[in-house]
Every structure is written in C-alpha cells, then in structure tokens.
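Inverse folding, one chain.
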C-alpha cells in the first residue's frame, strides 16, 4: 500500500524499530520486576546450604488421573485379580499407552502437514479442514482425545473468539473506518498521527494487528503525501510498533496464549495483571512512539 501510494518505505527501519522498542521494554520490565536483585544474588558468593533429604509425594501419573472408562475398567480388573498384580497391570497399561501415544503423535504430525498442504497448495478453508482433521483424529483415538480435550484452555478460547467476533461486527458496520476517517481528516497532521497511533493500539489489543495496520495506514496516506512534515518512514515504523506492542493484552491472541499456558499461578490474578499491563501499554506506548518516530524526526 505504501509503495502504491508512492511513499518512501524502509523495511529495515520498521524491523529495527520494532526490535529495539520491544527489547527496551523487556529490559525495563526485567529490571522493574526484580531482575536487578536476581543479578545481585547470582553475583554474590553464597556458600552452599545443606538441606536434609525430604520425601516429596509425586503427582499421580498414568490412566488413573483422568477418571475415565479406561481407569475404571483397570480398577475393576485389579480388584478381580487381586492386589498383588496391581503394579504389573498398571505397568502394562502405561506401556501400552506409551506405544499408542507415540503412534498418535506421528499421525498428528502427519495431519498437520496435510493441513498445511491442503490450505496453502489447494487454497481450502483452514477452519473447515482443521475441524475435519480434528474429527478424524478424535475417531482414531477417542479415549486419548478425551484426555486432550480436557486440557484445552477453553475459557481463553471463548474469550478470544467472543472478542474477535465483536470486533468483526464493528468492522463490518464501518465503526473503525468511520473513526479512522474522522481522525485522518483533522487539520493538524501531527495530532492525526497521534490519534491513529491510539486507534491502532486500542483496536489491536482486541483484534488482529495485521488487519489494523492494513486499514489504518491508507488513512494516513493523504497527509503523508501532502508535505506536512510527517515522515512516512517514521510514521509507518511507529504505527507498526504501536499496533503490535499491545498484543500482550489477555484479549489478544498472544496474551491469551500466555494466560492459557501459565502454570503454578492464580489464573484470575494473572489475568488482572495482564489486563492492567495491557491497559498501561495501550495508554503510554502510542504517546512515546509518537514522540520518537513522528515528533522528533519532524
């Protein structure tokens, strides 16, 4: 789009801007959240402390933790044959599950390759193909699939699909285009650039960053072509960073993945922390990026 508009474009500047800003934010967060103390602890020479040996109970493993029909059948079999053979029976079942699991992993990887071929080479709908392949895998190993389905982070998936649907409705109604057109028509190009940074950050916190960039950059083309003093290269680099740095929001895909894979933490408390941090970045990042990439070069 930038090339079609006849504007200067520097891909390396966009990449360097994103890399530098995100690296700086990561360093600041590391220091703010205890990184300095961690480094000091490692630098100090601490004598090893002898800790007495403590037996720690291990988490249950094998089919007995799932509470499904296989575990129930195994329990009945153990009861019928006597407790003396229980260890042998559990070992046999776990060994069989291990062999079946390896075969199922190979089949799953082959299904992923098939998904890529059908979608990329034959241009089939990725949603339909994914559901079809998932159904076939589920029929191949219903018991194993039952266990896998229980480990899916359904709350995060429902959150993302619900928010994505809502944003898609807004886009279909023309809400985002209306707001963007109104901002781009401002008399002050610098203020218009700042507002577009804010719109990109807010919408990207709930929707696809790539789609947001594709819809907002064309709105900036008129004042970038008008000799207003706003650098096209700086604006595009800042816009790209402003629209992607907010993806840590739990309503965005990246933030939802972090939330879904978090272990050993209170999910509700962690969700609030991600939400607060995402809101903070959405408010602060556009202003800082506008100063760095638009105001200073101008």
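Residues assigned per position:
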């Amino acid at each position: 789009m930038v090339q079609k508009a006849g504007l200067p474009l520097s891909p390396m500047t966009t990449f360097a801007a994103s890399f530098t800003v995100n690296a700086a934010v990561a360093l600041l967060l590391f220091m703010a959240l205890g990184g300095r103390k961690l480094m000091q602890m490692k630098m100090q020479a601490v004598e090893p402390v002898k800790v007495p040996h403590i037996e720690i109970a291990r988490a249950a493993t094998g089919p007995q933790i799932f509470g499904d029909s296989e575990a129930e059948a195994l329990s009945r079999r153990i009861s019928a044959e006597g407790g003396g053979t229980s260890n042998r029976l559990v070992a046999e079942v776990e060994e069989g599950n291990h062999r079946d699991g390896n075969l199922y992993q190979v089949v799953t990887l082959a299904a992923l390759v098939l998904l890529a071929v059908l979608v990329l080479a034959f241009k089939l709908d990725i949603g339909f193909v994914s559901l079809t392949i998932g159904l076939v895998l589920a029929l191949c190993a219903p018991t194993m699939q039952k266990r896998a389905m229980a480990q899916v982070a359904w709350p995060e998936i429902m959150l993302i699909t619900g928010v994505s649907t809502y944003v898609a409705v807004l886009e279909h109604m023309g809400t985002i285009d209306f707001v963007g057109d109104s901002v781009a028509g401002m008399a002050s190009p610098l203020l218009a650039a700042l507002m577009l940074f804010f719109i990109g950050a807010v919408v990207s916190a709930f929707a696809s960053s790539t789609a947001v960039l594709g819809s907002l950059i064309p709105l900036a083309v008129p004042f970038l072509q008008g000799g207003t003093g706003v650098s096209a290269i700086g604006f595009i680099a800042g816009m790209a960073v402003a629209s992607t740095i907010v993806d840590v929001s739990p309503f965005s895909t990246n933030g939802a993945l972090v939330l879904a894979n978090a272990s050993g933490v209170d999910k509700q408390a962690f969700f609030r922390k991600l939400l607060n941090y995402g809101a903070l970045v959405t408010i602060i990042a556009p202003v800082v990026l506008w100063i760095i990439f638009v105001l200073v070069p101008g």
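Residues 156-295 form one domain. Residues 148 and 202 are 34 Å apart (CA to CA).
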